[in-house]
Design goal:
eight-stranded parallel barrel; single chain; alpha/beta; orotidine-5'-phosphate decarboxylase activity; binds 5-iodo-2'-deoxyuridine-5'-monophosphate; Rossmann fold; Uridine 5'-monophosphate synthase
Length: 491
């Protein structure tokens, strides 16, 4: 028999965080007010070892508490596979609750063989208000089935346990949100301020079963945890990709959020620019296909300058093809971009396969740790065709699913683009003199893009390239972008 050991619980808590089963940020919730923590236990089906551990622990919990029941029933849908495993391990017959009654045939809500008076244990993944558990309980009860207990993986501690208790159901959770927060903090994965921000928020948002907040309307609760209020140091810890952590840390220690767009056509000019402006930038952005005299020596030299001045290289390739083509465009051809660019940009038009295609262009898993992509969710060009829905879908690709570990951020023009603070907002179209160029580029000031539009890194091209003294211009842009960031996080 598996018992619940403290080490096992800790290891599982860390693992759940690693696989993105929960994360911190600024997330839209069913209940209306944005939450600083988001759980998505749907991902665990992709990790059989995690499924195994979670269900072993649920079974251990059931045994420890001596919860005996005739049936077991999962709350649809995420908990269904967990309930199945519990049923198998315990040899307790399962009941399946339909979310919608069949329109034809028997119109049954509960599938499985049972009799009125039978007992049933509920299995659930994450509990907020407890309303999902209660929906399942209601349907079971309407068939005469008796429910007294529910085992759950995570209790968000927002009143769910008390709400279900009012209906005669005892809730037993493997993890409370506090336990997860404290464990991550003890293990150095999150800052104390993150723990405090989430705890404060949760305490203020206790929920009734009907979704209303205890203590009245909370629509105006400020979320201290909003991405634009957090420092780059804190966000480094929240990032899911190793390269993104590195970039946040680089920005914080070098004190720069300036990316220089080196749109020049001669290799030596790019190197000269990189040498002069290197001390002021966190990233150099290249368009390698505009360089007329490209050579391998250019790449070797560029890498040397990047190392000397401690900046990353972003090749603004804007990949946009099917996965198979993208993997070749990234890893092969005369530029072999994957071999030297720390980061690249990509359109989200092809969907998730764009990220998978890029990953496939890298030779091995280790290489992925040093590479990343910025996904385009908006453009600065006047009249571009991107709409709200496209923006939202791009954000989903960046933040959800198993490829989030390779995404470093989003190229966009506004802070509403995404909420997750472990990603970086990259914003082009920055110039001290606002306005438009004659080909549709629209410019905003450094202060405006950082403070009003949520940019974490501002991309500046001609604002520096066309200055009489590029070095001085780079220093000015660095100072102004950085001061705007400091002001943003201090408020
Ligand atoms: N760039 C934009 N706008 C966008 C995207 C990329 O300007 O929406 I996506 C690139 C193009 C150019 C740089 O390489 O950023 C901006 O250069 P200037 O600061 O010179 O306009």
């Amino acid at each position: 028999m598996v018992t619940k050991s403290e080490d096992q619980m800790k290891a599982l808590a860390l693992k759940l965080f690693e696989i993105n089963a929960f994360k911190f940020g600024d997330f839209k919730m069913k209940v209306g007010v944005n939450s600083p923590v988001y759980f998505d236990l749907r991902v665990i089906v992709s990790y059989p070892d995690v499924m195994q551990t979670v269900s072993d622990l649920l079974v251990a919990q059931i045994k420890e508490l001596k919860l005996s029941s005739k049936h077991v029933c999962g709350v649809p849908y995420t908990a269904l596979p967990l309930a199945t495993i519990v049923s198998l391990q315990q040899q307790t017959p399962m009941l399946v609750r339909r979310k919608e009654a069949k329109a034809y045939g028997t119109k049954k809500l509960i599938e499985g063989i049972f009799q009125a008076g039978d007992t049933c244990l509920i299995v659930e993944d994450v509990v907020t208000s407890g309303s999902s558990i209660l929906e399942t309980v209601r349907d079971l009860q309407s068939e005469g089935i008796v429910v007294t207990d529910a085992v759950v993986v995570v209790d968000r501690e927002q009143g769910g346990a008390a709400n279900v208790a009012k209906h005669g159901v005892r809730m037993h959770s493997l993890f409370t949100l506090s336990y997860l927060l404290n464990t991550l903090h003890e293990e150095g994965r999150i800052e104390r301020s993150t723990v405090d921000a989430v705890a404060k928020y949760i305490a203020a948002t206790q929920i009734n079963t009907d979704g209303s907040f205890i203590g009245g309307d909370k629509a105006s609760i400020p979320n201290d945890f909003s991405r634009t209020k957090l420092t780059y140091e804190i966000r480094a810890n929240l990032a899911k990709s190793p390269l993104t952590k590195r970039l946040f840390t680089l920005m914080a220690t070098k004190k720069t959020n300036l990316c220089l767009a080196a749109d020049l056509s001669k290799a030596d000019d790019v190197l000269d620019l990189a040498n002069k402006c290197g001390p002021y930038i966190c990233m150099l952005k290249t368009h390698v296909d505009i360089i007329e005299d490209f050579s391998e020596a250019f790449i070797t030299n560029l890498k040397t300058v990047a190392k000397k001045h401690n900046f990353l290289i972003l090749e603004d390739r804007k990949f946009a093809d099917i996965g198979n083509t993208v993997s070749q465009q990234y890893g092969k051809g005369m530029y072999k971009i994957a071999s030297w660019a720390n980061l690249v940009t990509a359109h989200t038009l092809p969907g998730r396969s764009i990220v998978q295609g890029l990953k496939a262009g890298l030779s091995n898993d280790n290489a992925r740790k040093e590479r990343g992509v910025f996904l385009l969710a908006e453009m600065s060009a006047k009249g571009n065709l991107i709409d709200e829905k496209y923006k939202e879908s791009s954000n989903k690709i960046a933040t959800e699913g198993g490829d989030a570990d390779f995404v470093s951020g989003v190229v966009c023009q506004s802070s509403t683009c995404f909420g997750f603070p472990g990603l970086i907002q990259l914003t082009p179209g920055v110039k001290i003199d606002e306005g438009v160029d004659n080909l549709g580029q629209q410019y905003q000031t450094p202060e405006h893009v950082v403070k009003e539009r949520g940019a974490d890194i501002g991309i500046v091209g001609r604002g520096i390239l066309q200055a009489a003294n590029v070095e001085k211009a780079a220093a000015t842009y660095r100072d102004r972008l950085w001061a705007a960031y400091l002001e943003r996080v201090s408020k």
